[in-house]
Amino acid sequence: MNTLLLAITAIALVVLVALVLRPLQEQEQPKQEEDERISPLLRGINYLLSDEPDRALQEMVQVARLRSEAADVYMALGEMFRSKGEIGRAVRIHQNLLARPDLPQSMHLQAHLALALDFQTGGLLDRALMQYQKALDIRSDHAGALEASLRIREQSKEWLLAEELLSRLERVRNESDSSHRAYLFSEMASQSCSDGDRDSAAEYAARALELDPACAPAHMVEIELALQAGEVEVAEAGVRALKAHSHEHFPLVISLLVQYKDFYAKHGLALLYEFCQQGRDAELVLAWLEVVATAHGRQEAVNLCSELGFVPGTLRESLRLQAVIGDESDPHTKFSMQWRTTAKNYICEQCGVEVVVVRWQCPQCHTWGTLHPKQEEKV
């Protein structure tokens, strides 16, 4: 049974317990009426265990009809509709709950959170934020609502608002996450750099590196600002700092260096040769070859590879090298080039998700700075 069915089954069991125990807290109801409600719920659980979620959902609807006053039944029903992708029906259920004047105060927080999750699942992020804020108005220290709001702000690239939410979340959890904040500042720096606000970009990048010297995107912003201003010594110092503090992500700066032809010819080449002589760094060499092939052509990459004396040591390295310097008429090269366009190049150290293009925030577990270049290819 998959995780979804297990979750729905758990919800149904909770409702069953609520229906059984509620008579202990409320006025005793006729046994026959209780049996009428419990029977379809048991059938629903049986359908879930038999991997028949559609029939299970029909039984849950019947339970809701028989106990229209029970908010917990409707909450469970809304969860089931959302789990099946019927977001509109889930939204209507939770909105109707909130509109009921007899809804217990204790249920308002749960209903707002459920409605927020409905909207968030459906991609209506503004409406989701409104519901999370209403939940926070009820309970300002609700970590789940703060974290969900933070994710939405990050997804919307609203970095200042995200940083404010991170501060609130840190106070609730009584812990500091300096690395997370550093990456938020680096995103502010990158955004300011793109907008032409050099002073703000420099300030945000400096704040990011003060919090986390290994924050590669902040180094990249400082290097780009120095290159734009023609500050050769500052740019070179930035390149060396990136190599020292974040060597795995250092190859990403090569394409930036190549864009500034004068700096690349007079300083960038010497720096890259120096780093290659410090020890075998396949990621650095292959990234350099790929950038050179794109900017100057395949033959330039062939000459550079020969000059560096690079020999691949793994299947992944062989495929990447073949895709760059191989003869395009060779079937093996064609395969390697096709593989290179879809190959997963980065893997998250936290959750193991693999992505094609580097991201500073993992798209699955949402942690920052945990995606690293893959070293080997599965066969």
List keywords for this structure.
single chain, 379 residues, mainly alpha, Serine Threonine Protein Phosphatase 5, Tetratricopeptide repeat, 4 domains, three-stranded antiparallel sheet, elongated
CATH class of the largest domain: Mainly Alpha
Q: What is the number of helical segments per DSSP (H or I, 4+ residues)?
A: 19
Helix-and-strand structural type: mainly alpha
CATH architecture of the largest domain: Alpha Horseshoe
Tell me the Rg in angstroms: 28 Å
Model description:
- The chain has 19 helices and 3 strands.
- Strand 1 and strand 2 form a beta hairpin.
In short:
The chain contains 19 helices and 3 strands. The chain has helices at 3-25, 31-49, 53-66, 71-83, 87-99, 105-121, 125-138, 143-155, 159-173, 178-194, 198-211, 216-229, 232-245, 254-259, 261-277, 282-296, 298-308, 315-325, 331-342, and strands at 346-348, 354-355, 371-373.
